[in-house]
Design a protein that fits this description.
By secondary structure, the protein is of the alpha/beta class. The protein has one domain: Alpha/Beta hydrolase fold, catalytic domain (Rossmann fold), CATH 3.40.50.1820. The two termini are 27 Å apart.
């Protein structure tokens, strides 16, 4: 799959693309890269859209920002800048994991630029109330803030990446090594581990303003039926949305789009066509 490049906010972003039509940004999370969408891109393109999957800031081959900014307002601003740099006035934004956090932020900052919001695997932070179980499930948020985070992530050929996939998608048995090969290759590039963990270091314990702002964009969230994060949390976040809000449950855990593409991809295409048809 061919890489292209575009400059937004002074940063050179790499991206994968397919198709023509209304712009759909497919935004990856951690530990992942834009290649997480390699099966989704052609399906979205075939449905009549221009599907673009950027490598987010700091993830090789996108540049590492000199200012070291990785807060969610910056991540959301990146998506808005990419929409403009790619020649569009607005876009459908599909975001997984940190991509979902960035997408929530972009929709809060400039709702007129986001035609449809599709967060995957992350409920809106406004619906999350900390509990002992949830704190344990999200213990990596604290671990990755520590100075030891980069060394821990690099240890034993990035064994933690495989551990996180298994932990976050617990029903996904015998995860092929190829699933994590590309992100491990990206993390092996100089400075990328520090950049990826910079997202966690920049995350405050209290949701930032862009995650406390009511979303005034039609939203369809995807929740994995086997995810450690209960689909109930998506319902608890309903008060954070001022426009239409739907929760779609599909088989799989946190990496539902990789674990069960045969279920996720047709459902995503149906959501796009129903809520933001290409013509």
């Amino acid at each position: 799959m061919k890489l292209d490049y575009v400059t937004a906010r002074g940063l050179r972003f790499a991206y994968l693309a397919a198709g023509t039509g209304p712009l759909v940004l497919l935004v990856h999370g951690f530990p992942d890269t834009a290649y997480t969408w390699d099966a989704t891109l052609p399906a979205v393109a075939a449905a009549g859209y221009r599907a673009v999957a950027p490598f987010t800031r700091g993830y090789h081959p996108t540049a590492i920002p000199a200012d070291g900014a990785y807060d969610v307002a910056t991540l959301g601003g990146d998506l808005l800048a990419l929409i403009e740099a790619l020649g569009a006035d607005r876009a459908i934004v599909v975001g997984h994991d940190w991509g979902a956090s960035a997408a929530y932020s972009a929709a809060a900052i400039a709702p007129e630029r986001v035609r449809l919001l599709v967060p995957v695997a992350i409920p809106h932070p406004g619906g999350i109330t900390p509990t002992p179980r949830l704190v344990w499930l999200l213990r990596h948020l604290i671990a990755f803030k520590r100075a030891s985070g980069p060394a821990r992530l690099r240890a034993n050929d990035f064994a933690l990446v495989d551990e996180l996939y298994a932990r976050w998608s617990p029903a996904w048995k015998d995860i092929p090594r190829s699933e994590t090969a590309r992100v491990k290759a990206a993390f092996a590039e100089p400075g990328v581990v520090e950049a990826a963990l910079g997202y966690y270091r920049a995350q405050p314990f209290r949701p930032p303003p862009s995650h406390r702002t009511r979303i005034e964009v039609p939203t369809v969230a995807f929740a994995g039926e086997d995810d450690a994060i209960s689909p109930r949390l998506y319902e608890k976040a309903r008060h954070m949305f001022g426009k239409s809000y739907e929760v779609v449950q599909v088989p799989g855990g946190h990496f539902m789009h990789r674990e069960h593409p045969e279920a996720f991809i047709p459902e995503l295409v149906s959501v796009l066509r129903d809520n933001a048809p290409p013509a």
